[in-house]
């Protein structure tokens, strides 16, 4: 059953691979890109895929930094929760002064 659950990913991957191949075949014209200090001439598909790759790299770097900050904050908050639980447990176990006699025993009723 697990294999069937993830089989849609295979089909989706094959579909996108097929679409990329068709896109590459349809966009094989040579284009010139000027960077200001140099010029690059190459197939349009390389320019498109290169731009997509650079964009994905920039986004992943931005997301990774945010992810690390969030994980660091989560670890700090978990430590704080643990410390508060310990403090709370100690306070619950400590008897109130009014309920205990001076010798440490509960008053008899």
Automatic annotation (TrEMBL):
Membrane spanning residue stretches: 12-38, 44-68
Key words, A-Z: Cell membrane, Membrane, Transmembrane, Transmembrane helix
The keyword Cell membrane belongs to this UniProt entry's keyword annotation: yes
Pfam families (UniProt xref): LapA_dom (PF06305)
Keyword Kinase: no
Stretches assigned to the Lipopolysaccharide assembly protein A domain: 26-86
Superkingdom field: Bacteria
Gene Ontology CC annotations of this record: plasma membrane
Xref: PANTHER family: MEMBRANE PROTEIN (PTHR41335:SF1), MEMBRANE PROTEIN-RELATED (PTHR41335)
The protein, known as: Lipopolysaccharide assembly protein A domain-containing protein
């Amino acid at each position: 059953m697990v294999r069937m659950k993830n089989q849609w990913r295979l089909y989706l991957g094959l579909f996108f691979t097929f679409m990329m191949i068709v896109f590459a075949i349809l966009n094989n014209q040579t284009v010139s890109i000027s960077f200001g200090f140099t010029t690059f001439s190459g197939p349009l598909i390389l320019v498109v895929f290169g731009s997509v790759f650079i964009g994905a790299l920039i986004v992943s770097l931005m997301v990774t930094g945010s992810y690390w900050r969030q994980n660091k904050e989560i670890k700090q908050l978990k430590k704080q929760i643990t410390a508060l639980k310990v403090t709370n447990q100690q306070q619950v176990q400590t008897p109130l002064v009014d309920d205990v006699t001076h010798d440490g025993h509960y008053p008899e009723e």
